[in-house]
Design brief:
about 260 residues; Jelly Rolls; nine-stranded antiparallel sheet; four-stranded antiparallel sheet
Length: about 260
Amino acid sequence: MENAAVLDSLSELQVSRFARDGYLVLKNLASSECCNAIRDWAELASTDMHAPLEYETDVQYPGAPTSFNAVGGKTSRRLLNVYSRDKIIRQWATGQILTGPLRQLLAAEDILLSQCHHNCLMTKFPGYSSATLWHQDNRYWSFDRQDLISAWLALGCESKMNGCLKVIPGTHLMDVEEGRFDAKKFLRPDLPVNRELIRQAVNVELEAGDLLFFHSRLFHAAGRNQSDKVKMSLAFTYHSADNAPIMDTRSARYPSITLRS
């Protein structure tokens, strides 16, 4: 399996844009062969319901089936713990194509993949997919510093129609009061200050092989899949070696994996 290219380094402009906006899109980072191989594996695994996985019913986000007995009740939302499932996935997740950019964006030489967060193949099925509301990943994670980066690989077209990610640029630099979140740690849409913030959102539209890096403090969300095809994306989260998960938390449940040089 070959990648489209190995990116030796990001430009100063790309690094500065990530620092300012909290996200960065790199076009055509994975070859069609790489994307097709991962997608073929994912289609088999999701069709056969290979555990562990998360169902749309489990999260009960807007639009999800109300129960397992409802129509679409056994629609998968994401296949979990995918790093350990197949060599194809491991080659992508710890390969040089990600290592170089992550070293620059995290300003660290030793980069680790968290097996506790993301580490998944996101599946968004037409008809039964849910909408993910506005949140920051760090509100669910426990590390010494809130400084992690997720890498999101599009395995096909991602658009507003099929529920692409939406981000609010620059929000990784904000400190937001607890009262602006609901009980599930999503932004409360009833607050004018939150509605004003959400109006600044942009859709991150991608093609197969495009890679999105986004900071763990960046506010992001996603809509429902209103197309007639399944949308699939591979997502992993990374941290520097000196930013350790806090013991006895979900973030320390599994050991992190060192990326190859």
